[in-house]
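Handover notes (outgoing to incoming on-call)

Open items:
1. Beta-fructofuranosidase: sequence verified, structure written out, both below. Nothing else pending on this one.
2. Nothing else urgent.
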Amino acid sequence: MEILAVFLVGLCCVLQSNGIEVEASENNGCRNFQPHTVMLQEKQSYRTSFHFQPPRNWLNDPNGPMWYRGVYHLFYQYNPYGALFGDFMIWAHSVSYDLINWIHLNHALCPTEPYDINSCWSGSATILPGKGPVILYTGIDANQCQVQNMAMPKNLSDPFLEEWIKFAQNPIMTPPDGVEGNNFRDPTTAWLSHDGKWNVIIGSWNNNQGMAILYQSEDFFNWTKYQDPLYSTERTGMWECPDFYPVSVNSTYGVDTSVLNAGVKHVMKASFNSHDYYMIGTYVPEMEKYIPDNDFTGTGMDLRYDHGKFYASKTFFDSVKNRRILWGWVNESDSIEDDMDKGWSGLQSIPRRIWLDRSGKQLVQWPIEEINKLHGKKVTFLDKKIDSESIFEVQGITAAQADVEVVFELPELQEAEFLNLTAVDPQLLCSDANASIKGRLGPFGLLTLATKDLTEQTAIFFRIFKGLKGYVVLMCSDQSRFSLSPFNKSKSEQALNIK
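Beta-fructofuranosidase structure tokens:
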């Protein structure tokens, strides 16, 4: 098989750091946390230059992303004392003017009160019309129970929102009857319904069902549990970090979380089983019900944001550029000992714009346009013919991080094997037909993060099949050889099916 390929390889410029370091002061409810200034090494192995990371220690869930008074805000789960998840988790806080270069500020929320004394866990930020942003977050109280709390900015005129005050009547929501205290967390961004009430969902697990428990409020201070969950299912585990938002049916522009009309569908996303799954469906506010077009099945056919390391994601509406932006936590693949030796663990994905596909059946994602400013040296190869089982090395750059655009042209699609999508799990298909197994049309693609002798490599490859209605492209990522480390070698292949 002969393949014609066009490569456009853009090398991103190296940033000096992942933000400007600022020494924290004793405020923001973090008085018990002793501030310190971190001196970064000039080079730190395996740290990225373009993804968001704090200077050191453990990072996980993105929390409360928003735009306010000309500034983008990102809060995130953080352990100020070490490179592993800890018993004293806080909300760290960074700001940016372009979602690329970040300033690390004082920590926003730290355990100080009985309702959050054992950690400040994940949540969201909602901007109240005419009143500014409000944070809803999960606190781990003195009894190790998960409760929902609220915090407001001390100074609304400060675009950096450097100080936050916890609501005096916290907690505002506690686990309802029948829900265990460790299965009640991660409030979403709130939305206004047709009756003028605020709505928010909490991730939970009860009676062998993952669920989105619905709470409502007329004033954003006093919350009442709705009689039924907004949605529940027996085909998942505990719902973590749920997200619920509208997407336009006829446009790639994003819409505000409170938009309710015939021109939108609604996305319900939940994090469970180490992945982020989502459904597209219809929200019926009069009944407070969510009706998905396709329910979760508990198989590889369920829709996922990402088939790599990506979890606990959060979206927000960027009103400046009318787009919805998606963040996700990327956790490490190495050992605990490696993380402790590095002194850090975890990063946030490059922010992505997200919208509804023209088919209305799945979401489309693309890195935000600001990423383009990182492009530096560019190498282009046109009309490169690649013979079967041959490897072409892209030369002219040396980079661990590059932006690659490639177009493959295959002359004879008629040779493709038949594939019945209704009977095939693409995840299993990618595992069974990995990058080393030859088919009629494929595998072909890219070997990334490869050593010179190719003993370590991550293959991103494609196979083409005949479907019942045209051709089917299967895109896979074979991670079985991405490291020689015994800890990493057992990592499984991931898959994405594109029709």
